[in-house]
Structures are given as structure tokens and as C-alpha cells.
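Throughout our pipeline, every protein is held as a single compact record rather than as scattered files. The remainder of this section carries one protein's record, kept here as part of the documentation.

===
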Amino acid sequence: MNHIKKAVVLSSGGIDSTTVMAMAKHEGFEIHSLSFFYGQRHAVELEAARKVADLLGAAEHLVINIDLNKIGGSSLTDDMDVPKARDERAMSQEIPVTYVPARNTIFLSFALAWAEVLESSDIFIGVNAIDYSGYPDCRPEYIHAFERMANLATKAGVEGITKIKINTPLIRLTKAQIIKKGIGLGVDYSATHSCYDPSPQGLACGRCDSCFLRKKGFKEAGVNDPTRYV
């Protein structure tokens, strides 16, 4: 009997997580897509995540509810303005108010639990240490630390059933390189969403950090940007 390689892929419905999902599929993994409704103002991304999971043939797409509004501390989950038209240097040097406290740690913990139940040793996450808006939980040293912890904290890890690997194939790529890789794998980026502060109709604002990086990535990749902006 052939053992099916299963992977839990964290999906926000954006460029990075969608490209990672396509890469995992290309590597022969059965995709188990994991998204979160955590009270984010850009919850329209969940519809994009559902579309992406469907387009890429995920075996399963799971959406988990976590109410991070009660904690707050971020313009994505609290009553704060999303920064607009920021200088690119500021993006790389400052941790912005769009940073959600401990978000990747929370998400990876859920992914770890699901991977253990699926008897999967692979979790994929689209973190990026270059075009990443200064988030501390997108750095390689953070991912390595979480992976070490994951193998100490699970029954499967302690018993040697599986050794958890946190796969971060985009961590040292620019947004343009990520887009080119996705295009090579047939990704339809028109199904994706990146904006932190979309209109009620789901149109991208075009001015937040995420929109800036998205626009810059398509331009540098020489690929038409299919995004619907306000």
C-alpha cells in the first residue's frame, strides 16, 4: 500500500500561501488547507482561501475561528487605522501596527495539532524574510525554534512516529521571485487577496503595506497584476 504524503498548508488566500500550496502539490503532497477567522478586518481573505483550496485540489479545507479581537493589539483586530502609503524603508525597519501579536505561533500550533492527527510530518507556511513588512514571526530563527519545540511537544514526536518539519520554501525569495515561481506552477493569482483594508465590496485599497508589496512584486516580475483595486 502506498503511503500518501500529507501536508498541512496554512492559507490566507494571499500570494505567498497560495504559491506555497502549489509547491507542496507539485512535490506530491495531499493538501490539507488551514485558514483562520480571527476577527481580522480583511476577512474577505477567507473566500480567497476557499477558492485557492478548490483550484489546487486540496483534500480538505478547514477554517478555525479564534477571537483575537478580545486581545487586540493590532490594527487588523482592533480599532486602529491601517497604515497607508508607508515608505519602503520604514516597512523594513519598523514592526507595524498590522502585526498581530503571536499570530504565526497561534496558527502553527493549530497546524501542528492537525498534522499530528493526520500523521503528517509536514507543515507548509508562506513566511518571507525579505518582503515581509518587518514581522518578527517571519524570520528563519523563529521557524527553526518552533520546529524544535514542535518535536518536543507532540506525542508523535516523542515516540518517533513522525518528525515535524516546518517547510518555508519562500523565506528567502522576493515577492517577484515568488510570483514567477507561482506562474510557473500555473497559479491563478486573480483568485488571491492581499489587502489589509479592503472596501465593503472586497476591493483592495492599493495603499496599505500588503497592497504595496503585491503591486511591487507583479511589476518587478513583469506579470500583469490581476488585483481589483478601489
